[in-house]
Structures are given as C-alpha cells and as structure tokens.
Amino acid sequence: MPKFEIRPPTLEDAAAFIDYLRALHQNVDHPGVIPRSEFPSEDVQREWITKYTVGDGFCLLVLSGERIVGCAELTRGRGAHRMHCASLGVSLLKEARGQGYGTRLIEMLHEWARGQTGLERIQLEVFHTNPGAIRLYERFGYVHEGRRVGAMKRYGESIDMIQMSMPIVGTQSDTTGHHG
After folding, report:
1. Which of the chain's termini has less CB crowding within 10 Å, N or C?
2. Strand positions, DSSP E, the chain
C-alpha cells in the first residue's frame, strides 16, 4: 500500500493539479465525476490556489511523490450573508481511494473549520450515484437537506444531486449547543 503525503497546495503545484484534473475527469467509471475535456491554464490554476492563501477557505492535496492523487477543499461563502457557510469538495483518484484518505482529509478540514470565527455550517452536494461518498459524509454527521432531481447529465443519464450539511461545533459563533 503506497504512503501518501497530505499538505496544502503551493503555486508550484499548478501544472501537477491540471494533470490531476485530467486523470480524475478521464475516469468514466467513477460514480461522482462527469468527464470533461477542457481544463484550466496554469495561470487560472494558480489563481484557484491563491484563493486558499488569502483566507477564502482551506485546501489540502494528497500526493504520491510529486503526483497529486487527491484534493479536498472548504470554500467560504462570499458576502456577509454567506460567510457563515463553507462548501466542501473532496476527490480522490482510484489509487488513493479506500485507504482512509477521504476520512483524514475531512477530519483536517473540519479541524480548520472549527478554528474559523463566524463559520457555522459546512454544506456539500454529492451525486446520488456515489453511495460510498454519501456514507462517508453521513459518518461525519452530515444530514440530507434536499435533492435536486436530474440536476446533472452523464452520458444521457440523469443524476440527482444530494444536498447535505452539518453544523460546525466549537467555533466562537456556536451557541446552539449542537454536538455533532
């Protein structure tokens, strides 16, 4: 079993991240990915990485040597009316799945979230065709809030988007008594 490193991205990771996106989106068997053929330039990817260095969220990469094999991110909402929320995204290449890296990434993102003043909730959307991810989120205490029926199409098949969320416990803004 290979050992992977987990760390935040740097601007020098831009080209490797584009390679990661290509590998992720060429995997037609993954239940949570829609294959695509267009990818960002290195400049656009560096801008994406930069947003995590200026306080708009937190991002972690899973690396096997110099190769990125996974990514997880929490992105803070924009504007005063959304700053209390963060959106979660997690993706792993096949070689990094089933080894606990998704769990570890979410644990690390939650740890960061608990330290953020005013952050009250994490929300996400997951394809209904990805039951492994849904179970992982449920184990962390995410609850189902809604379902956008037929929100996506993959090879002509309609895919529902399951909306899930959980409160952040332990922040300065947590006065609800939720223990989740």
Report:
1. N
2. 5-7, 57-64, 67-76, 85-92, 121-127, 143-154, 157-167
